[in-house]
């Protein structure tokens, strides 16, 4: 089986509300405020941030646009954008899952909405070539999930048709999009439940 992993929130830590609460401790006092700020800042990965994800604008421009749109200071917005790479730490349970899946003989790939600067950071900082046979970063192909072209690009790059692929992503919209291409897919909530799902599919031993 060819198994495709999302990155943020699946392989690498990404929880925008708590991230903003840490980076903006002067602005955010409660988890609820963190969630509200994250919704405005990242626009559910559309808008300004969506263009950044797709590699259509760079870091300086996304900072300028978010600051202009929200009224938050340029410095505060830039602090967040620059802090993202350090937030993207590997999730130990998922790394163990990757190693176990490889040991079981499965081919692993990734499909990630990731701006180019962060894709470059992850490629330089972690053994992606050891974990995965290949992968697609949105910022490098100028398309992003859940729009169909990025799934088509992935199929070509992975040399597979939809039915041969199992996709693991933490956003239901992306899982639904993959299923519409006839990919197998399920929503990731944590590494332990993902392991149980893979065991139930016969892809790992209990």
UniProtKB/TrEMBL annotation:
CDD domains per record: HAD_sEH-N_like
Pfam families named among the record's database cross-references: Hydrolase
A molecular function GO annotation: hydrolase activity
Native source organism of the sequence: Pelomonas nitida
Protein name: HAD family hydrolase
Keyword Hydrolase: yes
Keywords: Hydrolase
Keyword match Hydrolase: yes
NCBIfam families: HAD-SF-IA-v3
Domain of life, source organism: Bacteria
């Amino acid at each position: 089986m060819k198994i495709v992993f999302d990155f943020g929130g699946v392989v690498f830590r990404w929880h925008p509300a708590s991230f903003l609460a840490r980076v903006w401790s002067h602005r955010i006092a409660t988890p609820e405020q963190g969630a509200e700020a994250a919704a405005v800042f990242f626009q559910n990965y559309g808008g300004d941030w969506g263009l950044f994800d797709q590699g259509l604008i760079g870091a300086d421009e996304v900072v300028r646009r978010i600051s202009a749109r929200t009224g938050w200071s340029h410095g505060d917005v830039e602090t967040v954008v620059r802090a993202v790479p350090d937030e993207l730490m590997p999730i130990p349970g998922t790394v163990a899952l990757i190693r176990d899946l490889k040991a079981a003989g499965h081919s692993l790939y990734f499909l990630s909405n990731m701006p180019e600067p962060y894709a470059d950071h992850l490629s330089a900082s972690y053994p992606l070539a050891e974990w995965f046979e290949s992968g697609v970063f949105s910022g490098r192909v100028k398309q992003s999930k859940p729009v169909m072209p990025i799934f088509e690009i992935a199929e070509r790059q992975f040399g597979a048709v939809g039915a041969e692929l199992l996709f693991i992503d933490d956003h239901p919209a992306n899982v639904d999009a993959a299923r519409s291409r006839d990919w197998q897919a399920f929503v990731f909530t944590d590494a332990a439940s993902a392991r149980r799902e893979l065991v139930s599919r016969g892809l790992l031993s209990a």
